[in-house]
């Protein structure tokens, strides 16, 4: 009797039966988001990929949108990072290439759609906005480090981020050609040169 109760209790806890099952389900959901975006996201596919019964997915996430939100946030954890090699030019070039690669995936298209007005669940839109905010925060941290090391003069990180990432979105979303490292080098070079040339001198 006591053992039966112990077995049932985890299933009734908010968050699911066990950390192991939840982790498998969330990993599968994240993979599907990365592969297909959130359109047509189905519990059946999540369960099959996770190797669990569909009822386990429903039990852990009765609300489909909550699972979508957690999957989006999990998948995006590493996408908002900006490396710090000590070379701001190189780090920003790599960042732009990562953005370009991400935009060409179903997940990237989901992010792009989220920027536009859309009839979407508010929780999903909030998660997508959070992902974009994380990217801005990562840029801010890297630029703050560059300023402290005198790699750059004091700079408005939001402005610089818009200047270097805008052309990436334009090229990729037009679908006219592949975004290359040469593109990234050129964009970062021009923007950083402009930032340095227009910095106020003491």
Protein model, in words:
The chain is built from 10 helices and no strands. By secondary structure, it is mainly alpha-helical. It has 2 domains: 8-72, Arc Repressor Mutant, subunit A, CATH 1.10.10; 88-197, Tetracycline Repressor, domain 2 (Orthogonal Bundle), CATH 1.10.357. α6 crosses α10. Residues 1-16 have low confidence and may be disordered.
N-to-C SSE series? Answer: HHHHHHHHHH
User: In CATH terms, what is the architecture of the largest domain?
Assistant: Orthogonal Bundle
What's the total number of strands?
0
Query: How much beta, percentage-wise?
Result: under 5%
CATH superfamily of the largest domain: Tetracycline Repressor, domain 2
Biggest pleated-sheet summary: none
* CATH fold-level name of the largest domain: Tetracycline Repressor, domain 2
- C-alpha end-to-end distance: 78 Å
The percentage helix is: over 70%
Could you list some keywords that capture this structure?
202 residues; mainly alpha; Arc Repressor Mutant, subunit A; Tetracycline Repressor, domain 2; 10 helices; disordered N terminus; Homeodomain-like_sf
Set down the secondary structure blueprint:
Elements: H1 2-12, H2 19-36, H3 43-50, H4 54-60, H5 64-75, H6 88-103, H7 106-115, H8 122-148, H9 157-174, H10 181-197
Helix pairs in contact: 2-3, 2-5, 3-4, 5-8, 6-9, 6-10, 9-10
Characterize this entry briefly:
This protein is an all-alpha fold. It has helices at residues 2-12, 19-36, 43-50, 54-60, 64-75, 88-103, 106-115, 122-148, 157-174, 181-197. It has 2 domains: 8-72, Orthogonal Bundle (Arc Repressor Mutant, subunit A), CATH 1.10.10; 88-197, Tetracycline Repressor, domain 2, CATH 1.10.357.10.
């Amino acid at each position: 009797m006591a053992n039966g109760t112990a077995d049932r209790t985890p299933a009734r806890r908010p968050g699911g039966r066990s950390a192991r099952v939840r982790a498998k389900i969330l990993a599968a959901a994240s993979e599907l988001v990365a592969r297909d975006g959130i359109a047509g996201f189905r519990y059946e596919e999540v369960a099959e990929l996770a190797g669990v019964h569909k009822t386990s997915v429903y039990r852990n996430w009765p609300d489909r949108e909550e699972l979508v939100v957690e999957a989006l946030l999990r998948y995006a954890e590493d996408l908002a990072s900006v490396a710090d090699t000590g070379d701001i030019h190189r780090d920003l070039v790599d960042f732009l290439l990562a953005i370009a690669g991400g935009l060409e995936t179903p997940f990237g298209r989901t992010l792009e759609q989220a920027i536009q007005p859309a009839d979407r669940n508010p929780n999903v839109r909030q998660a997508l906005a959070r992902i974009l905010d994380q990217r801005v925060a990562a840029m801010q941290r890297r630029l703050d480090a560059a300023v402290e090391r005198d790699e750059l003069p004091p700079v408005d990180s939001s402005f610089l981020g818009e200047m270097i990432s805008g052309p990436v979105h334009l090229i990729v979303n037009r679908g006219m050609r592949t975004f290359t490292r040469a593109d990234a080098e050129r964009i970062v070079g021009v923007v950083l040169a402009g930032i340095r040339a227009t910095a106020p001198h003491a």
